[in-house]
Design a protein that fits this description.
single chain, 267 residues, 5-stranded parallel sheet, 10 helices, 12 strands, 29% helix
Length: 267
Amino acid sequence: PVHLREAWGIYKNLLCGVTTVVNHGEKIKKPTNLITVHEDRQSIHSVQFGKKWKLSLNNPLKKNVAAAIHTGEGTTASANREIDTLSKWNLLKRPIIGIHGVAMSTKQAKEFRALIWCPESNYFMLDQTAQVNLLKAHTAILFGTDSTLTGNWNIWEHIRLARKTGYLTDQEIFDSLTTNAALAWKLQSGAIAQYKQADLVIARNKNATSVPDAFFSIGPEDLLLVLHNGHISLFDEELLPQLKNIDPGDYSRVSIQGAFKYVAGDV
């Protein structure tokens, strides 16, 4: 049922410490305050499967709204040509955020505000991923997980796979998850700074000797606190004695890899 799929999409992100997602598809039917679900964009599936995609892309009422679209999702010459077709028909020169871009060239990348890189999904489906090591000089790289149908529910597994490719530096991967994403979607988040949305994630260090190693070793079981817009959406059981103003009855107690978390709402 749609409401369960939506709820799982929200909770699987929250359990991983994700505070903001961009939904590519129909708008969710039940708004949530557990995480930010950004939907101030136009979703077009793709040139190949999008119904009346040319009309949707050239809707003058949406001229300044970012269009998110699957493009170049393949390894063939036709997948590459699809990207040119999309750019050619962007008559209003709208900001386009491409998804996947496995077949994208550096010249094509210049036509996009950003590219959402989904390495785990790409390797699962195509055994190949976008050459973001080359594309990053021509467009912003954002991080995506696509669907749990084509990848692990745990975003940290996707992040570690991205690191293994060596296509982006550790800092560039971090930026693709935070500052780059906030800039591309024009969000007041993505950084710990004055006037930014108070989204903070605190995790346990697994004896890593460097900040990057500590970050890339995180799993859902290591999360101690997830703060979304100043409100606690998740906390580890060991913090319960310290959180004096929290009513445990407002949270569900769940077990992840032997660690108990309190998650807002009725899981």
